[in-house]
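Mods, move this if it's the wrong board.
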Amino acid sequence: MKREFLINLLFLLAINLLIKPIFIFGIDRNVQNLVGETNYGLYYSLLNITYLVQIIGDFGLQNYNNRYISQHRQLLSKYFPVLLSLKVILVLLYLLITMATGLLLGYSAAFWMLFALTINQLMVSMILFLRSNISGMGKYRIDSILSISDKLIVIIILSCIFWQPALKANFSIEWFIYVQLFSTVSIATISFFIVWKLCDYNIRISFEKEKLLFFFKKSLPYATIILLMTLYTRVDVLMLSKLLKDGNTQVGIYAAAYRLLDASNMVGYLFASLLLPMFARLLKTKEPISSLVDYSFRILFFGSLLLAANIFVFRQPISRLLYTGATDYWGDVLGWLMWSFVPVAMNYIFGALLVANDTIHKLNRIFILGIFVNIVINIVLIGLFQAVGTAISTLITQTLVTSLMIILAFKEIEIKIFLPNFWLILFTILAVAIPFLAKEINVEWKIQLLASVSITFLVGIICKMLPLLNFYEVMTKKNED
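Not the wrong board. Structure tokens:
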């Protein structure tokens, strides 16, 4: 299983690292620079409203279905039509509730922007549901290609627009929304036909009340997870928008910093999308799981700490490199927010493990605590430090939640790995210290950053955090736990 994980992970990383950074830094960043932080801040606030109520459109079907189909692949043709019927009902309900929420929060002037973003998020939810069937059937590479296809379409269309001075001069945030909507509708259609083929072209929509209620109840615990996770990760943006007079501007600055965290989270999410079905299958067959958890932990901890420490130290020049209007304040928001990537990366591993183990109710209690802590800290810190306060609040909340998830995983599942040891502690100390030392070298900051990353990379190999020497062995073995 470790060999299968590594092969699919390398493929998934290759295509995502090729496409998504171009979208985030070549397209999304340019959009913000073109329309300004205030207009982009409004867009980002509306986008987060669609996230806050996405529980209605998904209702846990993606995670439940991914876990269930991974363990019972022969039942796809039988249960997919029922789940699809339930999904249709949920997304229509999601559309109504999202629009009502936006109006109640005072965004009536941006009604059509919110409507288009809601339809787009609805399509994203449908794509993720369809992909859960594809990955559940073990078609990991097809799923990987679909994971970047919508972004690829946006890149192609907006690149053509940006290359035309007349179009670029008249560019508005609405154009960005409509191009995204076109791409998600296209990929949702393609994904449906792939699942249709996996079901031997035999899909009959079923609205039988008993079956719908059965799956509704089964997915309810997973829906609660999504709701709670969304609240403790997204509510801070709305608080920032509503608690400050220049709320949209502050949200725009926070969104600029979050863009880099979002790009980093891409890797963690890719790990989770592969690990969840693999964990579920290993737990069902009672095969050893420790090796796979340990392997993914070491790789993600290495990458997240390397990235977070270096971006924090070089936060000011990185911000100015990315954004035309960036100040030292922008850099401080970015620096503090990026430390969150370390606990968030661990969250992806242990969240997938706990969901695969069906440890849902205890996981939800952790998220409820995370929501409470996040709201309280934001109320205090936003007034004192504005967007910097929100970044610090995110770091504290994510660290607390992830620590509790790791403790719960060790308690519920037999894992014999990576208890703090000499190499882990040594790497942690050096990975944090190296960027500060590199900054003292009397050369251009880009060379300082390159030297810091290179040395940390070598230290990671020496400390056995990045087992490159073991990759060949893993790839050549047919059976690994």
